[in-house]
Write a structure and sequence with these properties.
315 residues, alpha/beta, Rossmann fold, Alpha-Beta Plaits, 2 domains, 5-stranded mixed β-sheet
Length: 315
């Protein structure tokens, strides 16, 4: 069954251009006559990037139409902040004139399409919306089937669960004399701020660097994963919770040192939480992950802090 509405966020500070887009969408609905391509539209307007970001926090949109030049932002930076705020939402960029260089860069950054405003009509706009939504749906579906994170090469959440659950069942059979198995998170709490202040390239460098450090840090029998949002996980069958926590704190200090040497210019806020596998979590990976998550929330004292000077904080 189709969704009742196709929710669209329109970021446009020019009232005439915003009205033109509304008219095109209205004409498209009349042509469709209630069926075929898309569900009826539900359009939300934002005149500034900050307004758009606030809407993205509260509403799940099917697609974003965005003019990248707003009173509070401009160009590629606008796109990057939108993408960081809602990475799973397809973005179609609206431009006043053709700019081949910027168009190529936007497509490389993940834009679904780039349209020139004066060339937009109801049918081309409808086709662009439908294609963007469908491509995004297929891409998300393939991403869920994959067990590896594309950027870091580590297991993703799906892969971690698929391998980790039978892993825990095997660990349960071990004798009491064997060292306790444990699971831990290492999270960069201000990853979005890093992208906004230092650029997406710095965010990606940090994630790739941490992934490589995890590979060096972990043993051959550890399971390592990146869950997105700056959160890394490790399931270790031969380290107790205290040992794994201590090792991750040393790793966090090394991460901070590398960020300083690179001149990242943003304070890295790192949270660590570790728990042991055992009767307390019924030898279940799901329950153990819940306990690790609780540990992160208990240590979230610096949630809104962000300094320009680089320094690693561990809660």
């Amino acid at each position: 069954m189709r969704k009742k509405y196709t929710r669209i966020l329109l970021l446009e500070d020019n009232l005439a251009d915003a009205g033109f887009v509304r008219e095109a969408l209205g004409e498209l609905e009349e042509i469709q006559n209630g069926n075929a391509w898309l569900s009826p539209f539900e359009l939300c307007d934002a005149e500034t990037l900050e307004e758009a970001l606030l809407l993205l926090k509260d509403i799940s949109f099917d697609v974003i139409l965005a003019d990248l030049w707003t009173p509070d932002s401009g160009g590629l930076a606008t796109f990057q902040r939108l993408k960081a705020a809602s990475p799973q939402t397809p973005i179609i960029v609206l431009m006043n004139t053709e700019d081949p260089g910027l168009t190529v860069r936007l497509m490389q950054e993940g834009a679904q399409d780039v349209l020139v405003k004066h060339e937009v009509d109801c049918t081309p706009l409808g086709r662009a919306l439908r294609c963007a939504i469908e491509r995004n749906r297929i891409s998300n579906g393939l991403r869920r089937l994959s067990v590896r994170d594309e950027l870091t090469g580590l297991l993703n959440f799906t892969g971690f669960l698929q391998l980790g659950e039978p892993y825990c069942r095997l660990l349960r059979r071990r004798t009491a004399s064997t060292p306790s198995a444990s699971c831990a998170y290492l999270q960069i709490a201000n990853l979005d701020a890093l992208a906004e202040l230092a650029g997406r390239h710095e965010q990606e460098w940090l994630l790739v660097e941490i992934a490589e450090m995890f590979r060096v840090f972990s043993s051959e029998v550890d399971l390592m994963a990146y869950f997105g949002g700056g959160r890394f996980a490790v399931l270790s069958p031969d380290r107790c919770g205290i040992s794994l926590d201590s090792a991750l704190r040393l790793l966090a200090a090394e991460i901070g040192t590398k960020a300083v040497a690179r001149g990242t210019g943003v304070e890295l806020q790192i949270q660590i939480s570790a728990v042991e596998l055992g009767e307390a979590n019924t030898w279940s990976l799901d329950q153990m992950l819940d306990h690790v998550e609780e540990g992160l929330w208990e240590n979230k004292a610096f949630e809104n802090a962000c300094e320009i000077e680089t320094q690693t904080l561990i809660q």
